[in-house]
Batch of 2 targets.
Target 1
Amino acid sequence: MDKMLVTSGRVLNGTVAASGAKNAALPILFSTLLAEGEHTFDNVPLLKDIDSTAELLKSLGCESIRGEGPNQHTFKVNVSKLKTFEAHYDLVRKMRASILCLGPMLAKYGEATVSLPGGCAIGTRPIDLHLDAMKALGAEIELRDGYVFAKAKKLKGTTILFEKTTVGGTENLLMAAVLAEGKTIIENAAKEPEIVDLANYLIKMGAKITGHGTSVITVEGVDKLIPARHSIMPDRIEAGTLLIAGAITGGDVTVTKCQPHDLDALINKMKESGFKIDVTENSMRIHPLKRWKAVDITTAPHPLFATDLQAQFMALMTVAEGTSVISETVFENRFMHVTELMRLGADITPKTQVAVVRGKPGGLSAAPVMATDLRASASLVLAGLVAKGETLVSRIYHLDRGYENLEGKLISLGAQVKRVP
Ligand code: UD1
């Protein structure tokens, strides 16, 4: 299993481009199940989670092909009548987002059998809201033998109010509603930019959707969708991580091919902390700063501070001046990185959903640490950039799930990082 050796002491400088967004690409790839024929996507990141999605689509009977060389970010999915409507446990357990095949299969074929995703490092993460939404559209749902068995002759539109904001739940419902009979109104819908990207692709295929990006989405069901071509939006979490990498080393880093507006909450907090950040429509530049202030953050659904940037921001706060209170309100157990950051010398008091970080500018020192999930891995690499000595981060397969060539990108900015077997 690969590890990453991060040597501190380099100030990052230069320009780096963000890749396509994992969290937009995954639902969009599953949405191909709604229309037979050839779908073409550009800016699809090279990630393990994309491979897992392709594998699941293949098991259902769809072929996907990634381009080569300069076309390696172009991805085609050929959908013909599915050979099975079952998403097997072996594939679903690799990636929770596999549950996103439920809505489209049910809407298109009136049938879907999907394994329950099971355990996860960042909380229990149930799928009850996805299932309630399918039931509200008229599906019969049965849970048996670790699987969800869903059936519906024809889904029927209705008004659905999510009692909690859910990104995946909103996406699954959206993909089911586009082929349902009549009008579906999704209330308390998630407003994440990735939902807008999914809606935009569904609209390209012929769906009738309005209100995406707001908390009320309206869908007029149509009889048929036709495959189209789409470029996946930039990854705001990766872009934010690279910005923090520049910040934590006191460097001058410009992230291009991104949408800074999607990162307003992060940018505002970094400015509050003392950083100077220049923003254009599709790039952002962080200016060098030697000392920065601790600030508090509370994660919440978009447009508030993203839970997927909490661990990376915490790394920045471990070397800030002062005390930062970090509150996690989206997931109930997303502080797994805290004990690892403490191994690097960080002074943190973790409580259930709040962590108090007493910053120690220049106060981290290297140690072997273990990645527990995708964003936690990123936070350990960021901390390693400034922890005196050589930090060995193990289990970095988590990183490969969601960051395209992170070490290459960091090296291009001058970091000393190395993948070791
Ligand atoms: C998506 C993102 C993930 C991000 C998260 C929150 C993808 C592939 N993943 O995950 O990176 O961290 O949004 O921004 O896009 N919940 C329920 N019942 C449900 C569904 C969710 O109780 O049926 C709870 C979850 O446990 C969690 C909260 O709702 O506490 C939000 O989860 P949700 O927005 O659904 O996250 P995901 O879609 O799984």
Note: DSSP finds 14 helices and 24 strands in the chain.
Target 2
Amino acid sequence: MQEKYIDENKQGEAFAIAEKPQNTKKLFLESYGCQMNFSDSEIVASILNEQGYNTTLKQEEADLILLNTCSIREKAEQTVRMRLSQFKNLKKEKPNLTVGVLGCMAERLKTKFLEEEQLVDLVVGPDAYRDLPNLLKETEGGRDAINVILSKEETYADINPVRLGGNGVTAFVTITRGCDNMCTFCVVPFTRGRERSRDPHSIIQECKELWENGYKEITLLGQNVDSYLWYGGGAKKDFKNATEMQKLTAINFSQLLDMVAVAVPKMRIRFSTSNPHEMTEEVFKVIAKHENICKYVHLPVQSGSDRILEKMNRQHTRQEYLDLIKKGKEIVPDISFSQDMIIGFCGETEEDHQLTLSLMKEVEYDYGYMFAYSERPGTPAHKKMEDDVPADVKQRRLAEVIALQGELSRKRMASYVGKVHEILIEGISKKNENQWKGRNSQNAVCVFDKLEGQKLGDIVSVFVHGNTQGTLLGETIS
Ligand code: SAH
Ligand code: F3S
């Protein structure tokens, strides 16, 4: 659950929780893509829980199969298509089985999905989940059903998400939906619609309830958390001008973060994703001010070359990005950063590529998520630019970027060795059931032997004595 994006070659993750004993129908719900999709799946499960569905991990016993899909790269879509084809036999055996597609692919492909995939009965975009009960009634009557209307207001603020398959320790809390940035490569503004912020009272309420229910860490989620702005609802662009908006502005992201940190003072707090052109110094100051906010920022950069950043419409330069990182390191001395990179964007030269590598070295990221550019239909880059970097060049450059990040990660991990870290116990180590796994404030994963009396959700002091590329090895000292 902690990975930022699920590997797009891998099948999605299915999570289940039996909620209401009186429910008789079974829902198999699988999520693909980013953390936002996992969070949305919890909202979907909650809505359907009220409609007689409990979730199941066994697709054979499902009355309803839903895939919450991702469109970010072509590969992600192919994986979902493959997965759908696996339900063909099941559908033959069980004619009453309903198969639905949710999320970004539903939004992008709309009715095309119903035409292309005979198997699919239901297509629902990310802002239309409240309509699921009505749509399911239509499918029960034997008709296909679709709702892909995007909203300027929907934040599902009042829906209490069913926490799916989590560890009972960490949870996501959505604070914004949609995106108003138009990065030229990105499909998200088309699939998730206009940006809108959720009512801060409902956010605080959800955080408090999570704490009361034993949760120890929350991640505030949005495509661009830094553009969070609450002034009573609606979209930012509904206001005629900045002055008009300013007058009504009540709360921005740094203020929200501060409020959450105060409202749940013992809860560990993370947030994702930050956008360099919107992130402010204030956010670093709030991190520095509160013990319970983790010293880690995921700050996608996509490229180290100004020429490419401009073609991507990222709205900041290499220097501005580096200045922001520098400020972060000054204000929060032991802060860590991770990146997203797109390799081989339209017109990327060897020189641009070298600038990406040199930027990475300068920042010394803890971790990175790196992708070869994948052209998405309908995006500005698709319409106006040529995807002209040959596939083998993209792959070679990608391999170089991944190798460099590996080196940087190892170096960063090694810098944590010989020190004591506060680790939140989040689960059992995959490799050794006698060991716990958790993360430090900087988001580095740490494994260590279990001791008597320790349990999931405890924060323990761990002395780190070694590391691999991605993991710290330690032992408890308290
Ligand atoms: N809102 C986030 C990112 C959303 S998409 C931000 O501010 O950056 C997650 C990541 O997928 C992006 O950061 C980018 O690195 C990658 N991505 C998006 N579109 C892509 C494309 N067409 N090809 C390859 N990678 C892409
Ligand atoms: Fe996509 Fe850029 Fe928004 S990467 S999600 S358009 S900030």
Note: The domain at 13-147 is CATH 3.40.50.12160 (Rossmann fold).
